[in-house]
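Narrative of activities, Objective 1.

The group set out to show that a structural description can be obtained from nothing but a protein's sequence at a throughput compatible with the screening campaign. Below is one input-output pair from the validation batch, recorded exactly as produced.
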Amino acid sequence: MPFTIEIGDITNEVCDAIVNAANNTLLGGGGVDGAIHKKAGKELLEECKALGGCKTGRAKITKGYNLPCRYVIHTVGPVWRGGKFNEENLLKSCYIESLKLAEKYSCKSVAFPLISAGAYNYPKAEAFRVAVKAITEYLNIFDDYDIYVKLVIYNTENLTDVESMRLLVKDIDYFTAMSVADSNPGENNRKFLYERNRVKNDTMYFYCMSDLEKKLHNASETFSEMLMRKISEKKMSASECYKRANISRKLFSKIKNDRCYKPSKATVLAFAISLRLSVEETEKLLQTAGYAFSNSTHSDIIIKYFISKKNYDIYKINEILFSFGEKLLGE
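Output recorded for this entry:
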């Protein structure tokens, strides 16, 4: 049951259902609501007229009409009034109720916008946090229901708390420098090329190494074999492992049944996070698939940083990777 985050236009999403951040009348409005109604055509408005509106925190479903999706799930988010009027629970309910409808109508893929973060003035960083929490909590409940969920962000400005990100970036910067020193003992005169990776604004950046690669090593134990062994050693169930890795049951079955399966690096790292492996154990798992950590790769530095801190929350890691414009972990 993978969950991913992308920047894009939700009206272009080809999936079973997209979610509309609607108002209580369901008769269209501005922002994503207006864009969905405009692209879907007049038939959507006619069907919405027969629904009798929708309460805040609830959801209703219609056909997709001219949109590249089968259904539109309309949900009404709360207006931000300082956070003292049950806004968080109402916003969380929007995601839960929408996913319940998606399940009821056998949807295998659904795309959400960032609900209430536009005209309803919900702080984007907080709206993003609630969205990730609600979606992941819902997905982790089920073993038998496979669904692909995407959070489509139209504009990432002010998505993440600037101060906390700045502190994290500073810590990653220090971690990177220490990693370089550890991997190059005695080379005090060597000159390294650094590149500046700016994220969102000029105060949020970190320097990382370029032109630094680790040699890959062959391993007699394949990725599939080591993965299954580690799951057994950790006394985890298969479903617990692939859920925590943000991997679908279908892909996990392929890996399990093919000892020579060649996974992507993101998949390997997702399982390392799920299994709560150390940096050294993660490196060995990477080697079985022909990969290695590199101090010249931004995503590797970030992931290695989280592992070194024993922070194995894959959704938090993906939030940071997304903020830095890097590929997310999982399927």
